[in-house]
Amino acid sequence: MLPYGRQTIEDDDIAAVTAALKADFLTTGPTVEAFERAFAGTVGAPHAAACSNGTAALHLAMLALDVKPGEAVIVPSITFLATANCARYVGADVIFADVDPESGLMTPATLAEAMGRVGDRRLRAVLPVHLRGDACDLPALARLAGEAGAVLVEDAPHAVGTTMNFGDMTEQIGDVRHSAMATFSFHPVKTIATGEGGMVTTGDPRLAERLRLLRSHGMVRPPGREPWWYEMPEPGFNYRLPDILCALGLSQLAKLPRFAARRRALAAAYGEALAPLAPAVRLAARPAWSDPVLHLMVALVDFEGLGRTRLEVVEALKAKGVGTQVHYIPVHRQPYYRNLYGPLDLPGAEAWYARCLSLPLYPGMADDDVGRVAEALRDVLGL
Ligand SMILES: *Cc1c(COP(=O)(O)O)cnc(C)c1O
């Protein structure tokens, strides 16, 4: 069975964890800072703060910005629940932006439309998601957010290793040239894995300091005081990433070039293998500026035109050993958000959801697996 995603853990990863287990610190030790420095260096960010998972990273970003109850945060409806929930954790209101139906991404046009629904709330933050690994139009989103007095926070777990070309400059996801912060997750299906794990990158040293403070109870140790002394100017959380997992993260990060090259090669192979199935099956659209390391290989399938339900196709593919997943159910449709804000018409998100199907993509796939998946899809769809 080919799952839609899977971690790649090798003997040296296990050795790195074993070494951390034998060292003096299981939780806050020297490997935390080493992982942060290495991650910041890899994505080209001035600062990085590790935390317990990608959801905690988003929550910490909202806390670090001091987003307050009743303020507004714009998130795309096609994302994982956590992107929206982080706004609710701090009492802010979620304004769901629509997405481009071909790429699944928030665009300047869908952001502008969502801004028109903010009402008299204060818009504090805009959270674009680099869905699948393709980069959003960050300069344009940043300009719009800036004009509205809001801060851009990228939810970037899908896009570790993705580069972008705006003008003649090559930029990297996570380098935070256009945003205040970018958040990451090291969940097993993501590009590098620590099991649970997260990171926030930022160019602002004060935000970096606040993120570190808030991830560890809000405790500060003022210099010149007694060795046991600590103070808490404001309450924080226990959102630390333990040394053990940072050791795994460091080991995984060293493999990013290999993982990224493998994902790029598999994505190119999918491009060729699925081309004959068009127009019934097409890959999600890649924006011109984006050179992605894809986290998800999303095919857009015209289930309706083919007279097949997605469930039939998913089950038939499973019977052929091909695992799939759906990314994502529009978050604005979730019972909690529907009860809170009422029904919302986001046609791009609905069109994306109606057709999306994530196919297997992970570095451990064999060369002929892509062909197998394409063949299975062709069979099952009768193409
Ligand atoms: C995985 C993911 C998260 C949450 O990360 P966890 O580490 O699972 O908490 C948030 N946003 C997006 C877009 C994700 O893919």
Q: Strand-and-helix sequence, N→C?
A: HHEHEHEHEHEEEEEHHHEEEHHHHEH
User: What is the number of beta strands?
Assistant: 13
Bound molecules: pyridoxal-5'-phosphate
Overall 3D shape: globular
The tally of structural domains comes to: 2
CATH architecture grouping of the largest domain: 3-Layer(aba) Sandwich
Search tags:
single chain; 383 residues; alpha/beta; Aspartate Aminotransferase, domain 2; Aspartate Aminotransferase, domain 1; 2 domains; 7-stranded mixed beta sheet; 3-stranded antiparallel beta sheet; 14 helices; globular; binds pyridoxal-5'-phosphate
Task: Explain what you see.
The protein has 383 residues and is α/β, with parallel strands linked by helices. It folds into two domains: 11-253, Aspartate Aminotransferase, domain 2, CATH 3.40.640; 256-381, Aspartate Aminotransferase, domain 1, CATH 3.90.1150. It has 14 helices and 13 strands. The chain has helices at residues 11-22, 30-43, 54-64, 81-89, 108-115, 138-147, 205-214, 243-253, 256-274, 303-306, 310-319, 335-341, 347-355, 369-381; strands at 47-51, 72-76, 93-97, 123-126, 151-155, 163-166, 169-172, 181-185, 198-202, 281-283, 290-291, 297-301, 356-359. A seven-stranded mixed beta sheet has the order 1-9-8-5-4-2-3, with helices on both faces. A three-stranded antiparallel beta sheet has the order 7-6-11, with no helix packed on it. The longest helix has 19 residues, at 256-274. The radius of gyration is 21 Å and the shape is globular. The model has no long low-confidence stretch (mean pLDDT 97). Pyridoxal-5'-phosphate (PLP) binds next to helix 3 and helix 4. Pyridoxal-5'-phosphate is lined by residues 53-55, 79-80, 82-83, 129, 155, 157-158, 185, 187, 198.
